[in-house]
Amino acid sequence: MSGQFLPVTMEECRERGIEQPDFVYVCGDAYVDHSSFGAAIICRLLESRGYSVGMIAQPDWKDPESVQVFGEPRLGFLVSAGNMDSMVNHYTVSKKHRQKDSYSPGGEMGHRPDRAVIVYGNLIRRTYKKTPIILGGIEASLRRLGHYDYWSDQVKRSVLLDSGADLISYGMGEHSIIEIADALASGLDVKDITFIRGTVYRCKSVEHIPEPLYLPSFEEIKEKKEQYARSFGIQHQNTDPYQAKVLIEDYGNQGYVVQNPPAYPLSEQEMDDVYHLPFMRTYHPMYEKKGGIPAIEEIKFSLTSNRGCFGGCNFCALTFHQGRIVQVRSHESLLEEAVEMTKDPDFKGYIHDVGGPTADFRQPACKKQLTKGACTNRQCLFPTPCKNLIADHSDYLTLLRKLRKVPKVKKVFIRSGIRFDYVLADPKSHFLQELADYHVSGQLRVAPEHVADKVLEKMGKPSHKVYQEFLKQYYACCKKSGKEQYAVPYFMSSHPGCGLKEAVELAEYIRDMGFMPEQVQDFYPTPSTISTCMYYTGLDPRTMEKVYVPVNPHEKNMQRALIQYRRPENRKLVEEALIKAGRQDLIGFGPKCLIRPYDGRRAQKVENLKTQTGSAGKNRKNGRGNLNQSQQPNGRQQKQHAGKKKTIRNVHKKR
C-alpha cells in the first residue's frame, strides 16, 4: 500500500517529483479512495501502469480556473459525473430537488451541476482547446448514443457531441482506459483512436469500418417513437462483447457517432488485481471538517465479490453498463480484504455485505457465456430459468463459511440482495438454510417488485407464484433455525404495463401481508433501460408491441397511494383510484376493505380539532402561551384537554 492519496494540488504533485501529470481526473463526487468508487479504480489502475494522475473532485463549474489546478495534463483529461447519474443524484422521480447528496462533504447538495459530464467537458474545452477529453462513468456510459431524457422529456444527442469530448470509455472501463492511455502515450492522435473495445468516438466518415450495423439516424429517433424503439432494440441486442457489432448513429452534417463492441469481461485474476490496488479505503482528509462523505458508511465494511448480472430486469441499466456476464474475485482476494478490514479501528465485527449487483451470482449463467457470450434472443432467468442455466450456490457458500471464520468477524450479512428465482433453481437447498442461520440481520430484503404477472412480464421478473414459493421455503428455514426473521419486499409503482387494476391487486396483497411498506419506489425512467424505452415510446422494443404506460402524474400518485393506502393523507387518492378501477367493493367496513366510506362530518371534526390544537401549539412555540404557576389549568381543565386528544385519536382510528 502506498499510504498516500492521489495528489489534489500541484504542490502535492511536485512533492512526488511530478511536474506535469499524465492525466487529470475531473469527478462529480468528492474524492473517496475506495474500490467501490469508479474514479478511484481508474486512477489507481493508471497509477499501477506508471501513469501519474491528479484528482480534481467537484470543481466549481462556474469558474474555469477550477479545472486548471494542475495545468494541462500531458496526455488528457478524464471526466466522470461520479458513482451516480447527476440528474438522479439531484432529483426525485417527481422531479423535485433532493435534500441530500451522499457523495458530497457532509451530505450537502450543490457541489455538482446537472448533466455533469457535459458541463465539465465544456468547462475544460474553454481553456484547453486541443487536449484530449475522455468521458467515463455511468452518466456518460448510459448516454453514449441518442437517448431519451426523462427530465426534459426529450430525445437528446450522444453526450460525446454536447460535451466537446473526444472519446467515451463506456462500461466498467479497466481494459479500455489502459489501451487509451497506451495509445496516447505512443503519440497517437486521439482522433485516430478508433479501434478500442468499450469506446465511442465521433468521425466524419465511416468508410473504414468493416460490416457495421447502422442505427436509425438521430433525426429519425427524435421524430418517430417507433424508430427510437427500433434503435434501442438493436442496441440491446449488441451489449455482449462476443457477438456485438460496431454500431453507427448518423448525425447528418455533424458526422457520425460510432460505438465499438463492449470490452471483454475481466478474468478472476484481473478482478483480483483491480481490488488489490493500494486504496486508502476512505475519503480524503480535507472533508473531515464537514463530517466526511456519507456514502462511505454503506460500503466501508462491505466486500464486492462480483460484477455483471444475468438477471435481466428491464428497469435496470446494468446490461448496458456492467453487462450480463458475471465476473468474480477469488476467495483469497476477498479473505485478504476482510482481514485488512478487521484492522480498521472502527470495525465492530460485522461485514455488512458480500455481493455485487446480485449477491448470489458467483459464476456466469452457463458454460458457453465465456466463449460465445450471452444469448441475444432470450434471458437467463426470464420468463423461466434457461435449461442451460447453472444454478449453484456451492462456491458462494464456501466463501461465506471462510469469511465467518476470519478472526474478529462476528457476523457476515448479505444486503445487496439475492435473486430468489435463482435460489429456487438450485437443486440443493443448503444455501437458503445457511442464509437464514447466519446471514440475515432480522430482515431479508428481496425485490419481487410487483404481484401482477402482467406487470412482472414487462419488468422481466418471474411470476408471482415463484416469489410465494420462495417465501414458503424461506420461512420454513427460519423456523428450523429457531429465529424470528422476515422477508421485506420492495415494490414499484407506475411501471409500464401497470394500470389501476394491477395497482389495486398489489394493494390487496399488501393488505393480506399485514403491514404497509415504509418506502415505495415509483418507476424512474433513467437512460438506457428497456423500461424507459417503453415509458417514452409506449412500445416494447423487443417485440414492438404496444404497452400501457401510466404517464399522467395524477395516476402515478394514485398508484403510489394504493401501496400505502393506510396513510390518512392518501385516503382521497385511494378512494378515487378504487372508483376508477371499479373496485368500490374495497370501500367499506369488511375485513377485506382497504378504506372506510368517507364521512365528511367526521373529517371536518378532525380538521377543526387539529386546527385548535395546532394553534395552541403555535402559541406555546412563540412564547405567547407561557403560563405562570397561578395560570396553570386545574385538574378539570387538564381532563378536558386530555379528552380532546383522545377524541382526535379515536376519530383517526375509526377512519
From TrEMBL:
Region of interest called Disordered, as start-end residue ranges on this chain: 607-655
Cofactor requirements of the protein: [4Fe-4S] cluster
Cofactor note: Binds 1 [4Fe-4S] cluster. The cluster is coordinated with 3 cysteines and an exchangeable S-adenosyl-L-methionine.
Biased composition (Polar residues): 627-637
Bias type Basic residues, positions: 638-655
SMART domains: Elp3
Coiled-coil spans in chain: none
Keywords associated with the record: 4Fe-4S, Iron, Iron-sulfur, Metal-binding, S-adenosyl-L-methionine
GO molecular function terms attached to this record: 4 iron, 4 sulfur cluster binding; catalytic activity; iron ion binding
Radical SAM core domain location: 294-569
Residue numbers binding [4Fe-4S] cluster: 309, 313, 316
HAMAP family in UniProt: UPF0313 (MF_01251)
Protein family: Belongs to the UPF0313 family.
Name the UniProt record assigns to this protein: YgiQ family radical SAM protein
Organism: Blautia faecicola
Taxonomic path: Bacteria, Bacillati, Bacillota, Clostridia, Lachnospirales
